[in-house]
Specification:
Chain A: It comes from Rubroshorea leprosula. The complex is a heterodimer. By secondary structure, chain A is mostly helical. Chain A is built from five helices and no strands. Helices cover 66% and strands 0% of the residues of chain A. Mean pLDDT of chain A is 87; it is low at 140-148. The chains are: A mainly alpha, B mainly alpha.
Chain lengths: 148, 179
């Protein structure tokens, strides 16, 4: 059984045994080659593939297909439109992150101010209690603390 | 836009193709002679006839943007013959995912601070009332752990999620699955 690859079917030619397209354009997916051919042309794709090692060609064709589909869907911007959207998403996310971190900083500042207030309050309570403890000692009953 | 044919100087495209640059040359407005590499790249990747066909299918006011995006894609593919623009897209999508994770973490931290404010709030002395902090509005919060879906182009899945543009050197080259 000698089935032509999708590229040779599209180009209406015989599919040789060493066809450069056949590993990457199986006959059951004609749309794949049609999209790539529409944007890049068969000879350009063949030349690109020939200039690459065999182990990189499958990835190349996948990426060419993705870009061709983007261009078919958006003839003006192609996949550059996707890149622009992503840059915008990054900018939006960075802005939101900065705002959220600023709000967290407000909480942190507020907590540290409250902790300072608590420490001061505790100290005041402690000093007040100590004062009560020694309040029964009138001036004549004061134990000498070393001050005469 | 350059109109080099009006100056009797061929546009970059006609120079490259070694032909006379006629008035009304479809390439002339977009490929000025001062930028020869722009057309060279576009020609190498797309070919002159494909570009002509694409431009003819567009309205005149769309052509400049189309040529610039084609030039961008062509340059990306000249620099990286395997992944082209897809490499940049993959890298940017990972950046978006990383930022979204950071945002989710930050939102979770903020919620914790806000929740801790309520049960432990002490009676505020009159002179400190002006400095009380309002908790973040609920509309700004995203569900913790939600996964950001990058913009898709008509449902096409990105062929490669793990590309050389891995901004996390400690991670492997794969294992993230498809988009």
């Amino acid at each position: 059984m000698n089935t032509r690859c999708a590229a040779c079917k599209y180009l209406r030619r015989r599919c040789p045994s060493d066809c450069i397209f056949s590993p990457y354009f199986p006959p059951h997916d004609p749309q794949r080659f049609a999209s790539i051919h529409r944007i890049y042309g068969a000879s350009n794709v063949a030349r690109m593939l020939q200039q690459l090692p065999v182990n990189q060609r499958a990835a190349t064709v996948d990426c060419l297909y993705y870009e061709a589909q983007c261009r078919v869907q958006d003839p003006v911007c192609g996949c550059v439109g996707v890149i622009s959207l992503l840059y915008q998403e990054i900018h939006n996310a960075e802005t939101k992150l900065a705002k959220t971190k600023a709000q967290i900083a407000l909480f942190v500042d507020s907590n540290s101010a409250r902790e300072d207030f608590e420490v001061e309050s505790d100290l005041n309570v402690l000093l007040h209690e100590e004062g009560n403890e020694f309040a029964h000692l009138g001036p004549s009953n004061q134990v000498s603390f070393g001050f005469t | 836009m350059a109109s080099s044919s009006s100056y009797n100087s061929p546009c970059a495209a006609c120079k490259f193709l070694r032909r006379k640059c006629m008035p009304g040359c479809i390439f002339a407005p977009y490929f000025p002679p001062e930028e020869p590499q722009k057309f060279a790249n576009v020609h190498k990747i797309f070919g002159a006839s494909n570009v002509t066909k694409m431009l003819n299918e567009l309205l005149p006011h769309q052509r400049e943007d189309a040529v610039n995006s084609l030039a961008y894609e062509a340059e990306a593919r000249v620099r990286d013959p395997v992944y082209g623009c897809v490499g940049a897209i993959s890298f940017l999508q990972r950046q978006v995912q990383r930022l979204q994770k950071e945002l989710d973490t930050a939102n979770a931290d903020l919620m914790r601070y806000a929740c801790n404010e309520i049960p432990t709030a002490l009676p505020v002395p009159p002179d400190m009332a002006a400095t009380s902090v309002q908790p973040m509005a609920a509309s700004h919060q995203r569900p913790v752990g939600s996964f950001y879906q990058p913009p898709a182009t008509g449902g096409f899945s990105l062929p490669y999620n793990s590309l050389p543009w891995n901004d996390n050197p400690s991670a492997g080259g794969g294992g993230e699955g498809g988009i």
